[in-house]
């Protein structure tokens, strides 16, 4: 088994991670702008969500968008962690059994830290 420092950095994996990271950052910027718009809309509306038919909609949209932003930020952290593993030479190695993760799994989920056998554990 090659040591982490002797493994070459997979160029395609690095490019894919960076492309996905760039797309996600663009999406996060848009969602942050959308959230600002929702806050502005709620400032201009009746603050009584219980009696304002539009208030509940704005609150719901804000909660939904906040959840999506949180999910996107978590995925960005996963991409950053994958980039660190790539630089350290441990990308594509299962954290449990220390065997290579199947290329198909990394294609489907580039941030995977475990092989399929250990994914459910």
TrEMBL record:
<keyword id="KW-0479">Metal-binding</keyword>
<feature type="coiled-coil region">
    <location>
        <begin position="62"/>
        <end position="89"/>
    </location>
</feature>
<feature type="domain" description="Zinc finger DksA/TraR C4-type">
    <location>
        <begin position="89"/>
        <end position="117"/>
    </location>
</feature>
<keyword id="KW-0175">Coiled coil</keyword>
<dbReference type="Pfam" id="PF01258">
    <property type="entry name" value="zf-dskA_traR"/>
</dbReference>
<protein>
    <submittedName>
        <fullName>TraR/DksA C4-type zinc finger protein</fullName>
    </submittedName>
</protein>
<feature type="region of interest" description="Disordered">
    <location>
        <begin position="1"/>
        <end position="20"/>
    </location>
</feature>
<keyword id="KW-0863">Zinc-finger</keyword>
<keyword id="KW-0862">Zinc</keyword>
<dbReference type="InterPro" id="IPR000962">
    <property type="entry name" value="Znf_DskA_TraR"/>
</dbReference>
<feature type="zinc finger region" description="dksA C4-type">
    <location>
        <begin position="94"/>
        <end position="118"/>
    </location>
</feature>
């Amino acid at each position: 088994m090659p040591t982490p420092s002797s493994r070459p950095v997979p160029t395609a994996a690095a490019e894919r991670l960076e492309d996905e990271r760039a797309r996600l950052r663009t999406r996060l910027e848009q969602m942050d702008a959308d959230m600002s718009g929702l806050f502005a809309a709620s400032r201009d509306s009746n603050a009584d969500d219980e009696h304002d038919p539009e208030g509940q909609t704005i609150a719901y949209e804000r909660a939904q968008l906040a959840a999506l932003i949180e999910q996107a930020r978590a995925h960005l952290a996963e991409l950053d962690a994958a980039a660190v593993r790539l630089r350290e030479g441990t990308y594509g190695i299962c954290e449990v059994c220390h065997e290579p993760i199947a290329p198909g799994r990394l294609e489907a989920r580039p941030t995977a830290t475990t092989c399929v056998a250990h994914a459910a554990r």
